Amino acid sequence: MASIGQALLIKYGLGTQPSPERQQEWARLTRQYIKDGQPPDRAGENAAKVLFRDFHTRVYASEADTIEMLLREAGK
Description:
Strand content: under 5%
Helix content: 55-70%
Largest sheet: none
Number of strands: 0
Structural class: mainly alpha
Number of domains: 1
Shape: globular
């Protein structure tokens, strides 16, 4: 399994791997959003939007990507 920083970089399309401090802040904020009632996936994405200025500036292909997403990206 990739490090949490590498996983965040890929999942949220970041340009650089977040620092350990930012990784912990993302985890804290995500847990808070979940506690406030957000579903985990939405909570993680919302925390990433708040904390990472380079949110969704890159697209990384991974084994988890769907065919639909890959086709959409290939059509750009």
